Amino acid sequence: MNRTDRMYAIVEELRAVAPRPRSATWLAGRFEVSRRTVERDISALQQAGVPVWAEPGRTGGYCLDRARTLPPVNFSPDEAVAVAVALGGVAGTPFAGGASTALRKILAAMRDDDAAAAHDLAARVHLLGAPADGPGVPAVLADAISARRVLRLRYTDREGVPTVRDVEPLGFVGSSTGWYLLAWCRLREAVRAFRIDRVVRATATSERAPRRAVRPEDLQVPEGDLRTLALLD
Q1: 75-85, pLDDT tens digit by residue?
Q2: Cβ distance 131 to 191 under 8 Å?
Q3: What is the pTM of this model?
Q4: How many Cα atoms sit within 13 Å of 199 on the Cβ side?
Q5: Which candidate, 16, 29, 62, 149, has a CA 20 to 30 Å from the CA of 183?
């Protein structure tokens, strides 16, 4: 997440819990940065006129006056895809039609470039049945998918053997056993699915990953079981 996106996200986080405070330590953990980085971001927001102030005390932190700020009127590509994944859970219910309409409204409100990026990101999310709940996906993985950055992974396989490998991120696969990072593994010279909960550490490199197409046979799943996320029917 770049600084501009992070500062925007900090404002929305403070708005969501207002008038309660969020500590710099909590925000640092939430956005995977240092406390000092959060404090610099807050200072920049204050200098820009955002009504954020520090509340002292053991349970204090940063607060936002939500009455003096406007809520967001747009969605980012990853937010639109997140909504699409969540709405997939209402398929087959009386609310499926409403879910489809809601998603169409979200896309219609987005800028053309953001909507195009959302469709591109959705095409790299593949589902096998109903995905199970699992650990959160580290921001560095999600960002690398959008930015097409080569990742260096510290990964532990199913046998407990640790490896370090460079991978070219291709997307995500959600299944009943959890979420996986789909990537071209330069160590194995093939497409591999890495369980998110076995990724010990992920570091984005400066190298841009080449475009690669993913075929169902690359994932070694029965034909017809794999479903690619679609934002619109």
Answers
A1: 888 888 888 88
A2: no
A3: 0.63
A4: 27
A5: 29
